[in-house]
Amino acid sequence: MIVVGDLVTDVLVEQNGPIQVGSDTDAAIRVAGGGQAANTAAWLAHARQPVTLVAAVGDDAAGRERVAELESVGVRCAVHVHPGAVTGSVVVLTGPAERTMITDRGASLLLDPDHVTAVVSAAPAGSHLHLSGYPLLHAGSRPAGLAALTAAAGRGITVSVDAASAAPLRAAGAQAFLDWVRDADLLLCNQDEADVLAGPGSAEEQAARLTAHVRNAVVKQGAAGAVWRVRDGEVFSGAASRVPVKDPTGAGDAFAAGLLAAWCSGAGPEAALAAGAALGAAAVARIGARP
What we know:
- The chain has helices at 36-46, 61-72, 113-121, 134-137, 142-155, 166-172, 174-180, 191-198, 203-210, 251-263, 269-284, and strands spanning 2-4, 8-15, 27-34, 52-58, 76-82, 89-94, 99-104, 128-132, 158-162, 186-190, 216-220, 226-230, 235-238.
- By secondary structure, it is an alpha/beta fold.
- The chain has one domain (2-7, 35-87, 107-284): UDP-N-acetylmuramoyl-L-alanine:D-glutamate ligase, CATH 3.40.1190.20.
C-alpha cells in the first residue's frame, strides 16, 4: 500500500483543565511524530500491512528523526528531503473529548508531483493508494496530491482519500474537493467533514450524497460508529468499540488503517468497519497519534 501526504512533528499538549488565557496552564507536553498520512502508515505497519509513505521533510534534525521513527516500525519511507526547508510541526491541544491543532505545514507544502508520480507509477500490480486530503487542501502541495490520483488512475490501482479536516475543506470549497477526488474508490470523512462536503443530515443521508461523487463513502461518527454507503445503494453500519478515551489524536488515522488493511485484503464493508473500529479504539486508549 502507498500512503501519500504529510509527515510532521507533533507537540502534544495535554492541559490540566481549561486553558487560562493570558496566564499559566499546567500541562504534560510530549514531542513525537505526527501527520495524518504518516500516522496512517504507522498504524498500517502495526496491522502487518506492507506500506510505503510518500512525503516531504526539511533537511533538519526533526526530518531525520521523523523518518527514522517510521522506518523503525516497518514503514518504507519514500520521503523527499528539501534543503533549506523546515519539517512541518503541529501543536496539538488535547483532552479526552476533543483536540485542536495549530499547524505549520513546513516542507509538507513542498511535496513534489514528480516524486509522487514516480513512486506511484512504480507500484506493483494490485497496490492501493491512500491519499491524505491535506495535500489537496493547500495550494503548494495540491499539484502533488492531484499527481498521485492521476498516477494511480494510469496504473489502474484502487484509491482511497481521507477528507482530512473541516476548516481547510471549507476554505478550499466542497465542490472543488469533490471534483478533485471524483470516482475515487473510497472517501473517508468524519461528521464535521461530511457536514462540509454533503450538507446537513444523518450520516446515511450524507454518505448517500457523497456516492454521487465517489464509489464508496464512509462517514465516521465517533462513539456512534460509522456508516458505509456503496454507490449502488447498499448501506452498512459499524459500531464503535467502547473504551476509556485518553486522547482522540490520530484516532481517525488508525481507523483508516484498520479499515484499509481489511478491505484491501478482501474483507467486506462490515468486517472492514469492525477492523477500523478496533484500531481506532486502540488509538484513543493511549496518548499520542501512533501505535
